[in-house]
Amino acid sequence: MTRTNHYLWWQRGTIYQVYPRSYQDSNDDGVGDLPGIVSRLDYLRWLGIDGVWISPIYPSPMKDFGYDVADYEAIHPLFGTLQDFDRLIAEAHARDIKVILDFVPNHSSDQHRWFVESRSSRTNPKRDWYIWRDPAPGGGPPNNWLSCFGGSAWEFDTRTGQYYYHAFLKEQPDLNWRNPNVVEAMLGVLRFWLDRGVDGFRVDVLWHLIKDDRFIDNPPNEAWREGMDPYQQLVPVHTTDRPEVHDIVHRMRRLFDEFDDRVLIGEIYLPVERLVQYYGGADLAGAHLPFNFQLINASWDARHLAKMIFEYENAIPQGGWPNWVLGNHDQHRIVTRVGPAQARVAAMLLLTLRGTPTMYYGDEIGMHDVPIPRERIQDPFEKNVPGRGLGRDPERTPMQWCAREKAGFTGGEPWLPIADDYREVNVEMERDDPCSMLALYQRLLSLRRGEPALEVGRFEPLDTDGDMLAYIRRGREAESTFLIALNLGARPQGMRVDEPGAIALSTHLDRAGERVDQTLELRADEGVIVRIGR
Ligand code: NOJ
Q1: Neighbour tally for 301: CB within 10 Å
Q2: Long-range contacts of 70-77 (CB under 8 A, 24+ apart)
Q3: Which residues contact 48 (CB under 8 A, 6 or more apart)?
C-alpha cells in the first residue's frame, strides 16, 4: 500500500494550457470558445491530464488577446457566458479535471472603467489606482523605463498633462499595487472566481507588480546588441522583482489558503536564485508554483540540462514543490526549438522530472510554429517590433483535431492560419497510430499516473557523459524505482546500469518489456524509462 496520499492534486498531476482562442470553436466565428473547450474534455480525460489552465476569457478589447482585461468578473461574449463557464467547471470536475484561470493583475485594459475614471481628471478618486507622473523637468517621459512590447513605457495623456506607466501596450496601463484599494479590489476578483469553483490561478507577470517608488532610471544592459529585443537594452531592476512584491504574493496566498486545495501559480521569468524567492521563504508563504521556464530557455544539450536541473533542485526551499514548463503561448513551440525527434525526448523529460509538468496545447500532437503571412499577423508585439522573431502568432495557431477542412477547429475562417501539415498532424490520425507523438504523451501520462516514484518520488541524478542525460526516480520501499535515460544526440549512445530492469517505455514506443542488464543502449534521439528490479 502506498503512503503518499498527502500529496495534493497539483503536486501529483499534470497541467495542460489551453489558449482558448485557438482550441475549439463551437459557433464558427473562427475563434475558440468555452463550449468548444467543454466538447473536448473527454479528449483531455483520455489524454490523462489533471488540470487545465485557460488563458484569459474576460471581456477585453483584445489588443493583447485577452491580457488586456476590461472587466475582471465577466466572460467575453466571444468565449461564451458565465453560464457556459459554470458548465465548464461542472463538466471538468465531473471528469476529475481541475480548472485554472489566468489572473492579470499587473495591468488592466485602458477600457476598464477604473482606468476610464482614473484618466478623467487628476482629482478623480481612482487617479492613484494607476501610475501617473509629471513629465521630466525638461519635458518628455518621467524616466527611461521601457515597455516590454517596444518603445517607452510612458504614455502622455493630453487632457490631464501627465504620463501613465504601461509595462506592456499603451492600452494596458499598470495598476498601482501600492494603493491598498487596488489590492482589496483585486483580491476581491480572486475571491469571486474561487467562490465559483475555480481550482487555481496562473498569475500573469507576477514579478512586475511593484515598481520602484523613486522612479529611478533603469541601468543599461552592457550585453545588449543591435537586433536583440529592444526591451533588453536596460536591466529592469527598478521596474521588476522589487522586494515589496512578496507582500502582495503573501496576501494572495493567504486568500487561497481560505479555500481547499487551490493552486497559486506565478508567471515569473527570473534567474533561478531570484525565482525561488517567490515560494515565500522558509515558511513557503508565497506561490505554490513559481513557473520554472528553464526548459524553455535552455540550450538543448545534455550537460547543460543536467547542470540546470541539479541547480534548480538545490535552489528550491525545503518543502517547496518543483515544476517544469516546456512551452506556452509566448514561446516558440518545442518541435520548432529542438526538432521533431528531440521533441519526443523532451516530452519524456518533462513528464519524468520531479515536479508538476505544464504542457502547452498542441505539443502533444507535435504541432510546430506556423509561419504567418504578413497580412495575417495579429500579435501586437510583432507589429511593434517586426522581423526579429519575437511575434507569438506562430505558436498560437488553431488546434489540429482531424484531417477535415480547417482541421476540425472551426466551420468559419480561423483567426490565425492552420498549419499546412494538419492532414497528417492531428488528434484523430494520431490516436490511431500506436507510434505517434500523441500516443507517446498518452502513454507517458498513463505510466506516470499511479506510480508514486514518477509522480512524487525522489530525484537522483546519474553521472553520464556525452549526449546522455540520466536520473533515477525513487519511490518509497515496495514502490517501483525508475531509471530515465535520454539520448539528446543524433548518434546511438550507451550507458552502464547498476541494477537490472525492464524497459517500461521508449520514446520510439517499440521496446516495452525488453530486459536491461549492465548496459543500456539507446538509439539516436531516444529516451527510455526502465523499471528497475527483476
Ligand atoms: C504575459 C503573457 O503571457 C503574455 O501573453 C502577455 O502579452 C503579457 N504577459 C502581458 O499581459
Answers
A1: 14
A2: 70/108, 70/109, 70/111, 70/112, 71/112, 71/113, 72/108, 72/186, 72/189, 72/192, 73/189, 73/192, 73/193, 75/34
A3: 14, 442, 445, 446, 448, 449
375 catalytic per annotation: no
Neighbouring residues of 243: CB distance < 8 A, sequence distance ≥ 6: none
Computed from CA positions of residues 484, 486, 492, 497, in that sequence, does the dihedral angle turn out positive or negative? negative
The alpha-carbon radius of gyration of the chain (Å, integer) is 24
- pLDDT at residue number 1: 38
Query: Do 466 and 487 touch, CB atoms closer than 8 A?
Result: no
Proportion of the chain above pLDDT 70, given as a percent:
99
Please, what is the end-to-end C-alpha distance for the chain in angstroms? Answer: 20
Euclidean distance between CA atoms 295 and 486, whole angstroms: 15
Give residue-wise pLDDT tens across range 325-374: 999 999 999 999 999 999 999 999 999 999 999 999 999 999 999 999 99
Q: Grid coordinates representing 467?
A: 549526449
330 C-beta closer than 6 A to ligand 1: yes
HSE value, Cβ hemisphere, 13 Å, CA-based, for 218: 22
Report CA(325)–ligand 1 centroid distance (Å). Answer: 16
| Residue 470, beta-bridge partner list | 485
Amino acid at 36: G
Which residue carries 484523430 as its cell?
A: 428
Residues 400, 404, 409, 413: is their CA dihedral positive or negative? Answer: positive
What is the distance, to the nearest Å, from the Cα of residue 340 to the centroid of all Cα atoms in its chain?
A: 21
Query: Angle CA(13)–CA(293)–CA(349) in degrees, nearest 5?
Result: 55
Q: Residue 238 corresponds to which amino acid?
A: H
Would you state the cell numbers that stand for residue 179, as one nine-digit string?
Answer: 494603493
3-state helix, strand, coil in the chain (%, to 5): 30, 15, 50
Of all protein residues, whose CA lies closest to atom 5 belonging to ligand 1? Answer: 330
Pick the catalytic residue: 134, 222, 226, 258? 258
* Secondary structure of residue 505 in the 3-state scheme: strand
What's the CA gap between 483 and 368, in Å, rounded? Answer: 29
Q: 205: Cβ below 6 Å to ligand 1?
A: yes
Instruction: Note if 222 is an active site residue.
Output: no
Q: What's phi and psi for 304, nearest 5 deg?
A: -65, -45
Residue 210's closest CA among 186, 190, 231? 186
Beta-carbon contacts of residue 27 (< 8 Å; ≥ 6 apart) = 33, 35
| Sequence letter at residue 202 | R
pLDDT at 61 over 60: yes
CB atoms within 10 A of CB 250: 16
* DSSP output for 431-500: HT-TTSHHHHHHHHHHHHTT-HHHHH-EEEE----TTEEEEEEE-STTS-EEEEEEE-SSS-EEEE-SS-
As beta bridge partners, residue 201 has 101, 264
- Contact (CB, 8 A) for 501 and 521: no
